[in-house]
Amino acid sequence: MTTLMIIDQAPYGSWSGREALDMALSLSAFDQSVALLFTGSGVNWLRRGQASDAIGQKSVEKNLSAAPLFGIETLLATRKDCERYSLTETDRLPGVTLVDTAAEAIADHDHVLFAG
Amino acid sequence: MNDASLPERNNEGFLENPQAWAPEVATAIAAEDNIELSENHWEIIEFLRGFYQEHGMAPPSNRLFVKAVRQKLGEEKGNSIYLMQLFPGTPAKTACRIAGLPRPTNCL
Amino acid sequence: MSASLSYSLVITAAPWASQAPQSALALAQAIIQGGHRIDRVFLYGDGVHLASSLATPPSDETHWPVEWSRFLAEHDIAGIVCIASALRRGIVNGTEQTRYHLEASNLRAPFEIAGLGEWVESRLQSDRVLYFHGGQS
User: Fold this and answer.
1) Catalytic site residue C21?
2) pLDDT tens string A40-83
3) Domains, chain A, ranges and CATH?
4) Inter-chain contact A29–B108, Cβ cutoff 8 Å?
5) What is the ipTM metric for this complex?
6) Which portions of this protein are annotated as coiled-coil regions (chain C) (predicted)?
7) Which of these, B30, B83, B96, C81, is most buried using a 10 Å CB contact count?
């Protein structure tokens, strides 16, 4: 049974992505297979060099980089949204797989959810 | 280092400010739990502090703490028995307290 | 007649900010009336506000925390509030009040505070897990 957590909101403006990451971590803690899909403005989670200190928030880039260490190995992003936000391969965190459509990623998983 | 010279802590003994940590602080906090820090302890403490620095968070649960140690230091050290022997109680909590990291929220 | 199913409900939006708690209650009542079972209701994110004992709407408005509490008690259903979401938003029970030296506690019975592990268990145990989110802004 595999779960896909969708993050479709840009970081920092909304807390729901962080809560999605916590859900993914908890699935992983119980050895459940889980992947993350970044889509829409959510792809901005993947941008390198985020300097969030100035707004008094923790860096989601740093938090997300812990995911593979906890067994969350699949990070997906929709190609057209990366293009829309000028997120080239060098701008992105390493280890992200691009998909052509969210539907393609959704079809590959048994459970699909949002945190809010 | 005696109690009076330790940095400010909360009622469960966690540092209020992770930046206030120093190795002597770790030794003093460990002593409260009757733990004498060996090289094996320091390896885990340094791992945790490095992890916090790099990822902006401590492992959020004991299971994930064990997983992360296994990922970094291998099966021999990344298992709950080994970590429980070094850091009795809930290893993640005890180790975070000694390493000067925030108290885990017990979310998981 | 179809076989009986077990459900868990996850609510992530706050009462009076979103219709989610209300929609979830309507469905929960229908589930029970339909002869099915609810294993657990899990409040996450802003949904934890549903468990506040301090919410005080005007007397001529529906009191969603009270309605939900009654429903959970009447049908003996576990109402679980995610601890990390709750602490951030100021929903605490006596234990957390003591632990964090807070001035008061405000968790409404029969809700209980626990971790995301309860949600993971729901996913493994319940036939259906349904999510009630607020509108995306």
Assistant:
1) no
2) 999 999 999 999 999 999 999 999 999 999 999 899 999 999 99
3) 2-48+59-113 (3.40.1260.10)
4) yes
5) 0.92
6) none
7) C81
